[in-house]
Amino acid sequence: MGAPKPALGYPSRTAAVVALRNQGKTFAQIGRMIGITAKTASALAHSAQRSHRHDLNEIRPDAVLDGEAINALQPYATRRGLTVGELVCLLIETVVEDQIIDAVLDDGAFAALASETAA
Questions:
Q1: How much is the pTM?
Q2: Which residues sit opposite 7 in a β-bridge?
Q3: I want to staple 10 with a disulfide (CB 3.0 to 4.6 A). Which of 16, 80, 94, 103 is the partner?
Q4: CA-CA distances (angstroms) from residue 34 to 41, 67, 110?
């Protein structure tokens, strides 16, 4: 492991990520602020969590997803060096941050809302 890289006045990128998460910033926002990807921001946060044993309110996928969904997500999480719970958090943050909920769900709710608003 290399020397810590100061970021935004913090002694390391990890310290910056943890502080910004505590301020309610998403991984995507933090990534843009520091100049790293959301994935890297997530990895730094979860690395800090493991080393300091702090709870960053990670979703327990087995509490909200069935086994089939967890198994389907596992290869995508593994490819990114994340747990399924971390991947679920990253997916939710990305969908919200990029405002693509209607596109992802594709259930017609946006069209229904638009027609109600127009009426």
A1: 0.47
A2: 10
A3: 16
A4: 9, 36, 34
